[in-house]
Amino acid sequence: MTKVVITSDLHLGITMRYQIDEMIAAIADERPDMTIIAGDIGEGMNYISTCLRLFRGLPGQVAALAGNHDVWTLDGHHSADVWERDLPNAIRNEGMLWLEDTNWQSGGLAIAGSIAWYDYSGADPEIPPQTEEFWVEKKRTMHPDGRFLDWAWSDREFAAHCGAGLMDRLSALDADETVADVLVVTHVPLFREQLINRPEIPNWGYGNAYFGNLTLGERVRGMSKVRAVVSGHTHIGRMESLADEPHLPAWVIPSDFHKPRYVVYENGSLRGCPLS
């Protein structure tokens, strides 16, 4: 059976190289057919390129997605250039798959992925509806993306673009008779069950607006072959099944600064890594 390892939020440049090396050694012991880096690879292109090289020599193939940190204006780079050229090229130059525009298949299993940018739909439902201008201004004061992105797209425009691409790839897999099961991997979570509600912390519910794309999640849950969704971004591990679809697990990788982690998808089920 096909074994897939998914990690995320490595943040080389904050997280130390030896900490990532230790995790990669554990991944090698898993003997995966595919390893996926689901975004937030490093702090700027220099660290991103270095981090990608650490994954050389792993068994099987390696694929990667962007995270929000990966498209920040660091090292003199512009966000749109990193997204459209620098990051995909760096990934492909390492012989890895840029999962944002290409599905991966092995036997009857297929993997589709996306950064799945947030569109504010993750905000806690108790918060009254707000304008897009409200969320843009709020982001400037409470989320670093508001300071370190310089592309011209609005969050909702970019989220819609990424979501449309993912849904096109999922639709192709749904129509492919050689595919029985689909694993979806995203940087940004897609379901309320993947997010944390902390009403005792001021502004936490507002912050969730930048940590989920539930609009896309509603579309993904309608695809008949999707068997699991694994995401990153929040740094807070979640092992949940959807309330109305208990057969569909939706996990968040428990990877954090200085504590990189991974999960394993095998034989139709998910499990955490052995690192403590």
Given as residue ranges, the uncertain stretches (5+ residues, pLDDT < 50) are none
The largest sheet is: 6 strands, mixed
Rg, rounded, reads 17 Å
Counted beta strands: 12
Order of helices and strands: EHEHEHEEEHHHEHHEEEEE
Lateral arrangement of strands in the main beta sheet: 4-3-2-1-11-12
- Proportion of residues in helical segments: 25-40%
Percent of sequence in beta strands:
15-25%
Q: Look at the structure and give the mean pLDDT.
A: 96
Structural class: alpha/beta
Number of helices: 8
Shape estimate? globular
Give a short overview:
This protein has eight helices and twelve strands.
Please describe what this structure looks like:
The protein has 276 residues and is of the alpha/beta class. It contains eight helices and twelve strands. The strands form two sheets. The protein has a six-stranded mixed beta sheet, with helices on one face.
List the helices and strands and how they pair.
Blueprint: E1 3-7, H1 17-30, E2 34-38, H2 45-54, E3 61-65, H3 79-93, E4 97-98, E5 104-106, E6 109-114, H4 132-142, H5 145-148, H6 155-175, E7 181-186, H7 204-207, H8 214-220, E8 226-231, E9 238-242, E10 245-252, E11 262-266, E12 269-272
Parallel strand pairs: 1-2, 2-3, 3-4, 6-7, 7-8, 8-10
Antiparallel strand pairs: 1-11, 5-6, 9-10, 11-12
